[in-house]
Write a structure and sequence with these properties.
Layout: H1 2-8, H2 18-25, H3 31-47, H4 54-59, H5 75-85, H6 96-103
Length: 110
């Protein structure tokens, strides 16, 4: 948000809300939305891979052992949260066009 503030030449001392700045700069999505969308696109790509490919093996790998304390939030936990928020189904992974359209990738796929 600081980058948008600097681009709009609005200081924090001006006490303008983030929504006001996004409206002035004509920015609809947040950076977090773009990151989540790209992660979902990449996850769909990896899940369509052959089961013997290294990225697919690593994405399903679970380390053994146990650490003390609260378990840390993993990349996969955040991914499943994004999948649930967008009402995506795992069966839709096999259809690349349908998955990308539901994830939010709007360009035409050939």
């Amino acid at each position: 948000m600081d980058a948008l503030r600097q681009s709009a030449r609005i200081s924090k001392l001006d006490r303008k809300t983030n929504e006001h700045i996004r409206g002035k700069m004509d920015v609809q999505d947040m950076v977090w939305d773009d990151i989540t969308r790209k992660q979902l696109i990449w996850y769909g790509h990896v899940e369509r891979m052959d089961p013997m490919r290294l990225p697919k093996i690593l994405i399903h790998w679970k380390p053994e052992g146990r650490k003390r304390g609260r378990p840390q939030r993993t990349w996969k936990d955040a991914l499943y949260t994004a999948i649930n928020e967008r009402d995506l189904r795992m069966g839709e992974l096999n259809n690349r066009r349908q998955w990308n359209m539901k994830v939010g990738r709007r360009r035409q796929m050939f």
